[in-house]
Amino acid sequence: MTYDTGFVVDGRISHERSDPALVRRELAVIRDDLHCNAVHITGGDPDRLEQAAAAAAALGLEVWFSPYPLESEPEEILALFRDCAERAERLRREGATVVFVAGVELSVMNRGFLPGDSPEERVALLLSRPGGPAEAMGELGARVNAFLRDAAAAVRERFGGRLTYAAIQFEQVDWTPFDIVTYELIRSAEVADRFRDGVRTLAQGPKPLAITGFGTAAYQGAGDRGGRVLDVVEHDPETRAPVRLNGVYERDEEGQAAYLDELLEIFDTEGVDSAFVYLFALAGYPHRPDGDPRDDLDRAGLGIVKLLEGGRGQAYPDMDWEPKAAFAAVARRYGR
pLDDT tens, 59-83? Predict the structure, then answer.
């Protein structure tokens, strides 16, 4: 399971839910009720990452320590990795099983790899380059791999455990510096007919295969959109915080549950070593069942729990969220 501790962009963090007791309680739910044995802990604040990682390790979970830089320059990313590698190594030396994840989708989520001022603009410019996307991706791969060699060296100077990077396939990563091959792999309608074969091919490589970043939202048709699932959200032009949906989208929790169940079945049967559902809870996307359905941001939220505003859940009366149908689907799958 992926557990978010807060994304940091230009000094702003995506949520304030950093109470250590709350973090421990949610990680215990992930272990005991979802039957997970590993957790992918992501975020941009090293203190929060370390706090959550220590809580997960105390519960006996394998920790994938994953600093997630956003809109950072390469040198800023390396500084974050050096800091986090030292923290992850302290935890590992205390007896925890720790995998260090040296970033996620760095080329589109950060500056210095592709032109453009946002992930959407970077991808659009990459695909529309006059020389053709193949040539552009080849050049991107060279830049990404040069950076990843430096990043791997910097992390290994400070961290003695296994190392990976959560890649997009078009980054053309050279996996030589890493112990585990990890892809952000999302199924859309366009690739659904060949998705299983693609997973099988990736799993036949010489190193263990992990899949991160897969998930979808709880509105009708979300699973067909793949990586475009959040395109239905309007954002504040200054803070980039989600504001409302751009139309009325019918809630479909069963569709989200079926999507995750199908992908987990594929990963389980086609040789994937590790798979991390994205994600437990997505801050900033509260469930608003009353009023205008366009204000119910949870319909577009990828969390398997829905965040409540000013109230407590029924299934977990001490928590400010309620499980979605996807929560039960994941629990059944992992419980087997």
Answer: 999 999 999 999 999 999 999 999 9
Residue pLDDT, tens place only, 255-285: 999 999 999 999 999 999 999 999 999 999 9
Q: Is 295 exposed, middle or buried (0-12, 13-18, 19+ CB in 10 A)?
A: middle
